[in-house]
Amino acid sequence: MIVILKQGIxxxxxxxxxxxxxxxxxxxxxIVGQQDTVLGAVGTAHIDIxxxxxxxxxxxxxxxxxxxxxxxxxxxxxxxxxxVGRVRIxxxxxxxxxxxxxxxxxxxxxxxxxxxxxxxxxxLRGGAFKPRTSPYSFQGLGEEGLKLLRKAGDAFDMPITxxxxxxxxxxxxxxxxxxxxxxxRNMQNFELLKEVGKTGMPVLLKRGLSATIEEWLMAAExxxxxxxxxxxxxxxxxRTYEKATRNTLDCSAIPVVQKLTHLPVIGDPSHATGIxxxxxxxxxxxxxxxxxxxxxxxxxxxxxxxxxxxxxxYPSQFDKLVRDIQALCPVVGKSLEKxxxxxxxxxxxxxxxxxxxxxxxxxxxxxAFSELAARRSFNESIELLPCHTFADTFDAVSSGKAKYAVVxxxxxxxxxxxxxxxxxAMHPEITVVGETLIRVVHNLITLPDAELSDIRKVxxxxxxxxxxxxxxxxxxxxxxxxxFFDTAGAVAYVAEKKDKSIAAIAGxxxxxxxxxxxxxxxxxxxxxxxxxxxxxxxEENASxxxxxxxxxxxxxxxxxxxEPGSLALALSVFSGNGVNMKKLESRPIPGxxxxxxxxxxCELPEGNVFDKFTEEMKEKTVSFRLLGTYTAAR
Length: 634
Ligand code: PEP
Ligand code: MN
Hints:
By secondary structure, this protein is α/β, with parallel strands linked by helices.
């Protein structure tokens, strides 16, 4: 049952409710949600719920209809975020885990770990105890394999996960690993589940070969009832009559599971298909289906692999796959989970952090798309600094009140955001270190009890109104469209007015932040609506942000003399050095009527060509500034 507590419950009252339930034989878990705090009480005991309802501080008691209790969405509405080392799984993240099927040798695991980390994997996998179909197949290196996996994980700064096959190994394995993996064949090995659950550690729970979704969630319930709430589900294909693939990947299980449980669910395209060429398309299908990540088998020499070679990707194929996943992420409203490697920059980072604020500034109120971009740009939970204007975000960074700012630079429908370019020009101490892409999805947001027929006025930023014109004219032809200073601010306004006849157009984060209803979702006329943001910081912090990144893009500005051919001469430096220009803008120079500053975004070539290019640009222009180098958002 779920015991919903009153908002003003005192600690003593809460303790009394907990003791009452425990005395009756229940396992009690406290769950603090955005809206209310609840106690989940599960177990074999039976009591009249009215005896709980009358306890001081209890608001109501709701029985859980599903056979799985702790794992059910009824128990906890918010997504559970599972932490494995510094990696967070769940919510709006896509986590890539990779590694060989089995740890085979020191050289093998180190080579593969380095390659997958470099491509974007954040958790390393590798079996040490292999439950093979044949007793004559390679069974894994056992504890020796765990030691090697740990070494590789530490060397490349990745938490590790590996399969546990026997309850007697649990304690020993807990000393080496960061996340247990329960294999498909052991999903209903209840003694194993109980023993693993008792450790309280994160667990990756594969779906059994022929398990129904309910059986799978009951296995998660075993883990949770035994003591861990850190469970990640993994769809890895089920047995069907089809023989073309090793198993049949059940992508539809992903959205089904997400409705039924708050636990994150990822997918394993390698064991699902058993065929290398199908791993990439099925990985993308999993992400498109809403999976919180994928676990992929990669081998530096699949032909020599001791197990599952035919389904293991070559490192180059894995590299391409991660890029494709990253490109797909914004379409499903997610971002690839990145965890910067802890390098020597760490000590420098500490210094910089103590010398200045850690906050990330963005323009707008809480719930704005810029806030979403700020969160996406940093994987750790960050302190946010909402600012009134774009200029305020730059000032916050400049003064040290914030360490970073995340500012929009271009929208696919609205074009360049000139304020940002002008502010970059005005702040020589600030540099661009990152780029983030957000898909702009608009929703009609109202008070919880409003219906479409109630709506008389719709508030939003003029861009928001323009981008939803078709919806407004077809569904709300009589409602007045009222321009507002920003989208999330419009939601705050509707929430404050408590008026059913007014609605706002904004993103999902704003609805969630202000506890409002999304009456209609995805109402934008053009679904390909993306906004690109820059992450900016003071020059002295730049190396920290950039230290883990593959820098492949640059933004620069220059001005030229007022004579024939001067711009053409500057542009010839790009082609002359093979530097691919992606975007060219011009802006008036303040105080110099009819003179312009040119802004260019270009690809950053490999090697030191760029140094030569920069030197030549300086020679052939009146002013030249490199505004930043960063990893292109895709
Ligand atoms: C594995 O991940 O190596 C494995 C054996 O997977 P599954 O249990 O899904 O077959
Ligand atoms: Mn395998």
